[in-house]
Design a protein that fits this description.
- Belongs to the TRAFAC class translation factor GTPase superfamily. Classic translation factor GTPase family. PrfC subfamily.
- This protein is an alpha+beta fold.
- The chain has three domains: 218 residues, Rossmann fold; 104 residues, P-loop containing nucleotide triphosphate hydrolases (Rossmann fold, 3-Layer(aba) Sandwich), CATH 3.40.50.300; 135 residues, 2-Layer Sandwich (Alpha-Beta Plaits), CATH 3.30.70.3280.
- It is 30% helix and 29% strand.
- The chain is built from 15 helices and 33 strands.
- Strand 4, helix 6 and strand 5 form a beta-alpha-beta unit.
- Helix 1 runs antiparallel to helix 2.
- The two termini are 31 Å apart.
- The N terminus is likely disordered.
- It binds guanosine-5'-diphosphate.
- The site of guanosine-5'-diphosphate (GDP) has 18 residues, from helix 1.
- Guanosine-5'-diphosphate binds next to helix 1.
């Protein structure tokens, strides 16, 4: 073993969070293109278009394999490797989306300049905040009529309780768009004849807003406005502070247009310059540092493989420390099982490629037959458990009714499997025999019914339940006992046997929680 952590190549491992239609697919495509085109841009686009059609999406989900290769996209720029983890973009997302955010070191938040912060943006942002994931904001579509920059910046600051630091400024928007002004580098980027930034485009370096080159390049009106607005912005918003950004207290904001290539190169540069390298991971008994020699990683996602007839799965492992080499034997902490990783999937390059080695920040796909579960830690060193991977509170709870009662065993297996994949959460009530599934979006329910039928040959129906939310509860034995006396009807166990209180809505949760101050109610359950 060589002990040369200094040879560890650096990574930027990140995700894009956004509301559907804000431009995530377009930006992804451009990042890959600007970053040494690893996937052809068209491929990403096609996938995005297909994804929007619900029926197509179901098919894709059933065939699975497709999204295995696109779950992690890798590109390089100036010798630095970026791992972009895909978060499914449709309106209903699963726990899967949230979990992906546990495997990144930073995020890019894409906002539509005409729409500002939308529901999904906020939800995903909350997950990032939970883990203090630093966020770079990209306000997209400045080539179209959008809202005033100030209104957008204030909205981010107010709604997300974040300091905002504008890094560039649009010179007009929509029909009046004349380019972007880089506030830090004092450069003007103007559209090429075709209206795009033509990759790195037409860039004029200036000495400041009073530089005659600026006056020559844009209209007098635009210059007057730019001068006034940037002055106001300078006085009204925080200056960029790398520390505050890394703590998740401040977001640098880039205006741009993914479609027209504006701001894309600047965004990649910002990721390279400011976004954190792989960070130490909280773990028991001690945090895992990327420079530790032992190879350690955790599974953040499990996906069934292409062929539904085989129970093959791919577990996605985020590498946290050490230098992974193909063929390595890793131990599944908890069971002590040794797993030889002979055919890992590394996500570099055009297609799946068999990896020889990987470094902290990289994602490795490990084919297995169901041994590996979300939340598992794998290591070749002393047993350690990576912590801080939360389960999320479901927002829809449904009872599962079996049409053929002789299939109970298959149903249980199926629900446990799908819960393991993060498609659903499953709750086994203390009273009654009907199992309950919890999801965060309607689409997950459709995926569930379809997969039960296709993959498990179980014909099931989902029925209304008296509950729509759930909380993990913890407390002393005596407190839990007295709680159970009055609330047994709402108690259930999750698949790991943890106690859950199911409630009609958040109001009921608050009401009940108020009456049992000794009991902890949590919307998320951290895996110990
Ligand atoms: P996603 O749902 O977030 O992945 O969004 P897409 O990338 O599919 O974009 C949604 C729509 O917005 C598509 O029609 C894009 O062509 C369009 N779009 C994306 N970026 C821009 C942009 O910078 N300017 C303009 N005018 N349209 C854009």
């Amino acid at each position: 073993m060589d002990a040369r952590p200094s040879t560890r190549p650096d990574r930027r491992t990140f995700a894009i969070i956004s509301h559907p239609d804000a431009g995530k697919t377009t930006l992804t495509e451009k990042l890959l293109l600007f970053g040494g085109a690893i996937h052809a841009a068209g491929e990403v686009k096609a996938r995005g278009a297909a994804r929007r059609a619900r029926s197509d999406w179901m098919k894709i989900e059933q065939q699975r394999g497709i999204s295995v290769t696109s779950s992690v996209m890798t590109f390089e720029r100036d010798g630095l490797t970026f791992n972009l983890l895909d978060t499914p973009g449709h309106e209903d997302f699963s726990e899967d989306t949230y979990r992906t955010l546990t495997a990144v070191d930073s995020a890019v938040m894409v906002i539509d300049a005409a729409r500002g912060i939308e529901a999904q943006t906020r939800k995903l942002f909350e997950v990032c905040r939970l883990r203090s994931v630093p966020i770079i904001t990209f306000i997209n579509k400045v080539d179209r009529e959008g809202r005033e920059p100030f209104s957008l910046l204030d909205e981010i600051a107010d709604q997300l309780a974040l300091d905002v630091a504008p890094m560039n400024w649009p010179v007009g928007m929509g029909g009046m768009f004349e380019g972007l002004y880089d506030l830090e580098g004092q450069r003007l980027m103007r559209p090429a004849a075709d209206g795009t930034a033509a990759f790195e485009g037409d860039v004029t370096a200036v000495s400041g807003l009073d530089d005659p080159r600026l006056a020559a390049a844009i209209s007098a009106d635009a210059l007057a406005r730019l001068t006034e607005e940037t002055e106001l912005a300078g006085a009204g918003y925080a200056a960029f502070d790398a520390e505050a950004y890394r703590h998740g207290d401040l977001t640098p904001v880039y205006f741009g247009s993914a479609l027209k290539d504006f701001g894309v190169a600047e965004l990649i540069d910002a990721l390279a310059r400011f976004a954190p390298s792989p960070r130490p991971q909280p773990a028991d008994p001690a945090p895992v540092s990327p420079d530790d020699q032992a190879v350690t990683g955790f599974i953040f996602k499990v996906q069934a493989n292409m062929n539904p007839m085989h129970r093959d799965r791919v577990a996605f492992m985020r590498l946290c420390s050490g230098r992974f080499r193909r063929g390595m034997k890793l131990t599944q902490v908890g069971t002590g099982k040794a797993i030889s990783v002979h055919s890992p999937i590394l996500f570099f390059a055009r297609e799946r490629e068999t990896a020889e080695e990987a470094w902290p920040g990289d994602i490795i796909g490990i084919p297995n037959h169901g041994t590996l579960r979300v939340g598992d830690t794998l290591t070749d060193g002393a047993p350690r458990v990576i912590t801080g991977l939360p389960n999320f509170a479901p927002e829809l709870l449904r009872r599962v009714a079996l049409k053929d009662p002789t299939k109970t065993k298959q149903l249980r297996k199926a629900l446990d499997d799908l819960a393991e994949e993060g498609i659903i959460q499953v709750f086994y009530p203390e009273i009654g025999s009907q199992w309950v599934v919890g999801v965060v979006g309607q689409l997950q329910l459709e995926v569930l019914v379809s997969r039960l039928e296709v993959e498990y040959k179980v014909d099931a129906r989902l029925e209304a339940s008296p509950w729509d939310t759930a909380r993990w509860i913890a407390g002393s034995e005596a407190d839990l006992k007295s709680f159970a006396e009055f609330h047994r009807g709402g108690l259930a166990r999750d698949r790991d046997d943890a106690l859950v209180f199911m409630a009609k809505d958040a109001w009921e949760v608050n009401y009940v929680a108020g009456r049992y101050p000794a009991i902890r109610f949590s919307a998320t359950r951290e895996r110990a």
